[in-house]
Amino acid sequence: MQFTLLNQENQAYWEATYIEAFPEEERLPFDQLLTSSQAGKFHLFVIQEADENVGILLNSQIAPEATYVFFFAIDQHHRNQRLGSTVLALLKTRYPKGVLLESEEIGKNAANEAQREKRYQFYERNGVLDTGYLIMDRGLTFHIMFAGASGFGGTQLQFLLDFHPVAKIWKKPSIDGIR
Q1: Out of 28, 73, 74, 79, which could bridge 21 as a Cys pair, Cβ 3.0 to 4.6 Å?
Q2: What structural domains and CATH numbers belong to the chain?
Q3: DSSP bridge pairs for 104
Q4: Rounded CA separation 179/162 (Å)
Q5: What does the alpha-carbon distance between residue 88 and residue 72 come to, in Å, rounded to a whole number?
Q6: How far apart are CA 154 and CA 138, in angstroms?
Q7: Distance between CA atoms of 23 and 20, rounded to whole angstroms?
Q8: Are 148 and 92 within 8 A, CB to CB?
Q9: Which residues contact residue 108 at a Cβ distance below 8 angstroms, ignoring those fewer than 6 apart?
């Protein structure tokens, strides 16, 4: 499996997969992604398996050996083949100090609640765990999830606030001990 930087040959695939995989309210304009990528804010990759495009990734380096995954999807023709698990394993190897990502808030009876729960469980099953924090950006709320040797803390929170300057981040209330 390899990650190939976005180029003229794979741009149409990246954009089509992006539109197919993410609801409109979660997407940023593709031109904005290109501009930010060209400015070095983050990287857009096509994920390939045996020279075939199978997914997309948009990530940004937090620190040496740590990354923030902003968009990640396996295209609809390649799902349920353990490719997503393979990608997460590669990211955790490549970035041993941390893989930070977000998953849509669950437990809110959303129209796509089953899909949200499946995605959340997928991340947890692959060792990317809920930090106990939520982030709200552009009116959408997500669980902040993390895997890494460095542990989740202030560095990652500050990175998210810098990356999403109008976002709000808060610790989920604990219900331990409540009966």
Answers
A1: 73
A2: 2-171 (3.40.630.30)
A3: 142
A4: 38
A5: 10
A6: 22
A7: 8
A8: yes
A9: 141
pTM of full prediction above 0.70: yes
The CA distance from 63 to 114, in Å, is 34
> Rounded to whole angstroms, what are the CA distances from 108 to 6, 104, 117, 124, 133?
35, 10, 11, 19, 16
pLDDT tens string 102-152 = 999 999 998 889 989 999 999 999 999 999 999 999 899 999 999 998 889
Q: Write out pLDDT tens, residues 25-70.
A: 999 999 999 999 999 889 999 999 999 999 999 999 998 899 999 9
pLDDT bin (cut points 50, 70, 90) of residue 177 is low
**What tokens does 83 get?**
């490719």
